[in-house]
Design goal:
Blueprint: E1 12-13, H1 22-40, E2 42-44, E3 52-54, E4 60-62, E5 68-70, H2 73-87, H3 94-100, H4 109-114, H5 118-129, H6 133-148, H7 154-158
Amino acid sequence: ERILVTEWVDGERLDKSTAGDVPRLCGVALNAYLVMLLETGTLHCDPHPGNLLRSKDGKLVILDFGMTLETDPTLQYSLLEFVAHLTGGDYDSVPQDFIKMGFLKEERLDTVMASGFLEPLTYMFQQAKQGGGGTKVRERIIDEYKTKYPGLDDEELRV
């Protein structure tokens, strides 16, 4: 038997909050996700800014546990390596990370690398690393293209 329970929690999205303790709460969130992964083997598969709130009393609220994945220790370590490579800007290691995590078969690596996929992937990771979510990434890319191609209007850039 399965039972679904929901609860309304008042709070402010961390990415919209101007409270001085937001950096600390981000650290708490990171620690919580790592504890979930490394101690319970559970991966929260939807950790975006809309799922992190600051409650009225200054506590972190993590929302939406509807998409989680039970992981074995090998995958846990591979995920940590992947995140370390992304945050450290070591994008050349990402294809090997994809193999370790099961997203790419090793025998396909040469074909994938020859396709040139790493260049746009690196560009997107660099944009994402600057923060702001999908909207800010899109805005930065559009601004970059406005500078590169001054004759294009906003509508042409959004296609």
